[in-house]
């Protein structure tokens, strides 16, 4: 999920993220040593998730201490590939927010299971991304989901820089515990504010590649936050062109906020407020989806539960499920009895995230990545108004990309899955037709087609 | 349905429709006399449609001769209101095209039945518009569906003017046969090219109101063709803003077709052709709907047939159903054994429709209607790229309307049904969220909410 990246009417700070930092390695070295990693891995094996149907692949869940004493302690959930072999790649997934749990990705998007409306049992998602690769879901930063600090300083240290460093250190340490994945092809993936997390982590991997061998091959980001200045205009543009706001509101926004002398002033604020009011009753993460009108759990699972018809109350079922004691026990989560429940996003922490970080442009990092041979794919569910395709297209235009293969439809199961364009340096943009912000929730089959094409370094299917 | 209103690259003719004609009445007078209308009505009663579930209301079907000898002979299908009383209004429906059958409206959109995938049996649409009013579906002009001429001149006489005159005469004669509906409130409704048919028929009724008492109260038109100059730009604008064509294609269209010196020339044509190619694999009448990949009839009806999930192969089931001998017999259709099958649109006739008529602006007629106290509502399914909301908004802007109630969401079953704005003279615009060109096919409940609000002269529901 992707909470509004800025307060309406607040001045934007466009100071850019420092693209060239290098993290301090001593901390990293000392914290790896002295623990029997194989033992930890075996302890992390999840025998069965409560209420799950039988499956043939292995699942793990547990904590990795970034710093052994104070933390942070990052919770992870890991699913091995269905057809795992010694070389099947590793994909690391982040849900963004900032401060939203990646267990949403696991249980609402592309993981092997979804939660039934009873909040207690699971059903199989046949379009899980572990059909193709091993997938590692990381709850990051501390304070998100089951991840935590040992002291109250969690909220003081948040931000893009700290998050990227901790994600990097998590990955290095996790690879000690799961050493058979060392040297595998690694892909960093995520959506929404992970448009910051993923490129920043990828950059750290590049900058430290002499010290740790992480074979970074690609970055995949969906409906990503990349450059807030372009995004805000694209959001209102999207709302207008999808008939959610009136021509008058659109004219006013342009006159008062974009072309006016008083941009950011009271009149601009009012025009934005009227837009917020008009659109407050629909789900801006999928403008055509129903909203959840009754989130009460059912005593039995709803009939005809299908992964193809995303139930808008699913986040409520997931919240209920992850707060069950037997589920937490089975997942090796919340072992320290946190004084709060699992929630999909930590809104308090989100509110404290600095505007400097939010407004930083990711364009320089994307350029560094593609220049270094890292495959970068950006995708947009076309029903999302939170980080819409219009915003992303403005960012791409700003990058002044060299087109290698022009815009064309791509296909999945005989239907147009979306449109795609390919640029120099293995940079690809693709839309996913009929999907909102959480693409695999709405279009699981199309999302899996996109994902496998990305991993296999194949163009998206070009024919029926 | 709404076939492309002009050939790509052809020059537009903007000569306007003559808004002040008056039809010749002698023909009308002579043709009414001398027939026992009550008898004809009884013969038109449909006892049961093959394969239909039981219902409590009456259905009629049959022919009305506009001219007793040569024709045209217009086929109609009429469903009485479920809660009919002596004053329940009469709604006349047209599907547009030009040259598409209104039986599509009856069996794919807002009639009481839909056709199962077996092409033989029917299921109930609980959101039928006869829940509120009596609905008369007219196949017009001659050559469309079951309507015909007695000679081969049908194709020579087509056009907006002739169609409006014949529709008017049909209505006068039909009211002789169904005389209990004389003096009732009458509403003219339709979609797509019926954006021409409906205002033109309404205007004729106004101009002839001293001669025949037809209590015209309102006009309701969905995704209507109203002003082709504005519409074409709005179509490409819609495709671009819904990520179906690339920024480059949109730039080219603007440069070569709108702002170029050579508008309408070869380069403009090429830019439009590239757009047509890129969008040829999706259904432009609902850009997010699946296309019909397998139109083979099933031996048994598909399981879980629900009116809420429109099956894209439904037009094929309807075509099979309406060509069954027992169905035609029960409906009193095709009594003269036409040498061709029922089809949803007559594309040959559509091709012969003059560009003068297609390109005529309906704005003067709409202004005449609202100025005469006729309630006019225009609605747009927001997933339609054929006559998209962007096009309709350009037409509304051109009308320079005086806003009486500003843009706001309206509600149906607890969800946002769309957005609406009200103007001076009882003129209302409304979008229907999540609907394509055939609004009641995609959103039957929202369409019924809109329809009943229109008929009852109530604002669209403003709260959850």
TrEMBL record, chains A, B:
GO terms for molecular function: serine-type carboxypeptidase activity. It is found in: Secreted. Keywords: Carboxypeptidase, Disulfide bond, Glycoprotein, Hydrolase, Protease, Signal. GO terms for cellular component: extracellular region; vacuole. Gene3D superfamilies: 3.40.50.11320, 6.10.250.940, alpha/beta hydrolase. The keyword Glycoprotein applies. GO terms for biological process: proteolysis. Pfam families: Peptidase_S10. InterPro entries: AB_hydrolase_fold, Peptidase_S10, Ser_caboxypep_his_AS. Its main location: secreted. Probable carboxypeptidase. Belongs to the peptidase S10 family. This is Carboxypeptidase. It comes from Arabis nemorensis.
């Amino acid at each position: 999920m992707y909470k509004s990246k800025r307060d309406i009417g607040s001045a934007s700070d466009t100071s850019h993220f420092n693209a060239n930092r290098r993290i301090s390695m001593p901390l990293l070295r000392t914290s790896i040593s002295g623990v029997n990693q194989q033992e930890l891995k075996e302890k992390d094996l999840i025998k069965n998730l409560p209420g799950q149907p039988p499956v043939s692949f292995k699942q793990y869940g547990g904590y990795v201490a970034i710093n052994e004493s104070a933390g942070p302690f990052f919770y992870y959930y890991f699913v091995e590939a269905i057809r795992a072999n010694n070389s099947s790649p590793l994909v690391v997934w982040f849900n963004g927010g900032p401060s939203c749990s990646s267990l949403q990705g696991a249980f609402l998007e592309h993981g092997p299971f979804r939660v039934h409306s009873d909040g207690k049992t699971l059903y199989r998602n046949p379009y899980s991304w572990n059909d193709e690769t091993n997938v590692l879901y990381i709850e990051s930063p501390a304070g998100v989901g089951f991840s935590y600090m040992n002291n109250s300083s969690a909220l003081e240290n948040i931000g893009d820089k700290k998050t990227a460093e901790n994600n990097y250190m998590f990955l290095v340490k996790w690879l000690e515990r799961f050493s058979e994945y060392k040297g595998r092809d690694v892909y960093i993936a995520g959506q929404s504010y992970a448009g910051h997390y993923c490129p920043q982590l990828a950059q750290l991997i590049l900058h430290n590649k002499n010290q740790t061998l992480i074979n970074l091959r690609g970055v995949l980001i969906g409906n990503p936050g990349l450059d807030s200045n372009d995004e805000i205009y694209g959001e209102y543009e999207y709302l207008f062109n999808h008939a959610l706001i009136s021509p008058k509101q659109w004219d006013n926004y342009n006159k008062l906020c974009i072309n006016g002398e008083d941009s950011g002033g009271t009149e601009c604020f009012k025009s934005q407020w009227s837009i917020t009011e008009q659109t407050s009753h629909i789900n801006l993460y999928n403008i055509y989806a129903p909203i959840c009108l009754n989130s009460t759990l059912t005593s039995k699972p709803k009939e005809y539960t299908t992964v193809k018809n995303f139930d808008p109350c699913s986040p409520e079922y997931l919240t209920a499920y992850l707060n069950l004691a037997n589920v937490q026990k089975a997942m090796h989560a919340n072992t320290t009895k946190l004084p709060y429940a699992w929630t999909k996003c930590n809104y308090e922490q989100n509110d404290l995230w600095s505007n400097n970080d939010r407004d930083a442009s990711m364009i320089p990092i994307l350029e560094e990545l593609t220049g270094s041979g890292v495959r970068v794919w950006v995708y947009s569910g076309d029903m999302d108004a939170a980080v819409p395709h219009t915003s992303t297209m403005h960012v791409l235009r700003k990058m002044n990309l060299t087109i290698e293969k022009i815009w064309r439809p791509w296909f999945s199961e005989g239907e147009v899955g979306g449109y795609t364009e390919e640029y120099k340096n293995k940079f690809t943009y693709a839309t996913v037709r009929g999907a909102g912000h959480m693409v695999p929730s709405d279009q699981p089959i199309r999302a899996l087609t996109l994902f496998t094409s990305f991993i296999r370094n194949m163009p998206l299917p070009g024919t029926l």
